[in-house]
Amino acid sequence: MKICTEDQQKNNSVEPKGMSTKLRTEDRTSGSSTKRWDHSKNHTYQYRRLNRRNEKKEVVLLDDEDTELLDDEDTEPSKSVDVEIVNIWDKSQIYYPSRTDPETVELTYSDIKCLDPEVFLKSPVINFYIQYLRKSRPCDDLYIFNTYFYSKLEEALSRTGECGSQFSKLRRWWRSVDIFKTPYLLLPIHGQVHWSLVIIFMPAKEIKSGPRVFHLDSLGLHSSDKVFGVIESYLIEEWRHLQKDSSYDIPFSDTIWRHLSRNIHKEKIEVPQQQNDFDCGVFMLYYIDKFIQEAPDDLTGVRPCKFGRKWFSPVEASGLRKRIRVLLIDIFQNAPPSDRNLVSHADDDSEDEEDKGKDTIVIV
């Protein structure tokens, strides 16, 4: 304030840029001179502070007053950069377990968002974890279909008069697997914004029992009768197809095989229930995970596992969401170049010579 001259006060002059220099007025009523701020005008000290800010845009720490004085032009570029970085990383892709695997799962980084709290799991993430679990157990006694199979099966079986031809096309989904000689078949089921699981157990030949079908549902929303009808039709259609091959090695006793449709046992299983509306996919995956850990190599039992409401704690199952998230982020960061498609920046003129030609991965 001391820089203001006596002349400026008297003449109420205006400096360039239209800034008022009147900083105080005289209160004549009291007989004395009282300094009083005039808040109705922009002041010289504010003008000078703004000039200093424009000259030094590299300053990164601003107090509240400085932040309020920044205009929209100063802040807009940073927002655009943030959006661009997020979009670039979201479009990054990996192939799991590898690009050349016949059952590879393609994932983008944005798929991980479905593992946020209170979000429904999506098929790419579920199929990823299914492939991850399949690697933990030999595939000769276990086969897990992906999330798209059941809806395709349901569609093929519903076409009146075309069931046979549609089913023949569908057989490519399990062309490398003899379903009647595979002890455990697992089918994820999706419908009505809900996930449940079917486990098909093929007992040993000496048991003299046909296939046993179990339905596991964490909310009981899917009709078990409808599900059993689809699975039974599936098994019978495949049985009819194999009947045409006289050299086929029958996996059951002759009596069971000849009357297979009457020897398919179906059971709705009591299992731990989810405690919310959004963990059905997580519970379905945990059923698979838990089953793989406990399913016996001995196929002489009536049930392949100790199911029940107390099979595990619901909290334990809900915790799988975080574990899958950590696992996926780690796989994204460490995926080999042959199994990933990364968006890179090639327009940075300031990069060092030794860094040229390398992919730039942006992690937010």
From TrEMBL:
Name its GO BP terms in alphabetical order.
protein desumoylation; proteolysis
Per UniProt, the keywords (alphabetical) are: Hydrolase, Protease, Thiol protease
- According to the UniProt record, where is the region Disordered? 1-40, 340-359
Q: Which regions form coiled coils?
A: none
Q: Where is the composition biased (Basic and acidic residues)?
A: 23-40
**Annotated Pfam families:** Peptidase_C48
Q: Which residues form the Ubiquitin-like protease family profile domain?
A: 105-291
**Which PANTHER family does the UniProt record give?**
UBIQUITIN-LIKE PROTEASE 4-RELATED (PTHR46915), UBIQUITIN-LIKE-SPECIFIC PROTEASE 1D (PTHR46915:SF14)
What is the protein name given in its UniProt record?
Ubiquitin-like protease family profile domain-containing protein
Protein species of origin? Aegilops tauschii subsp. strangulata (Goatgrass)
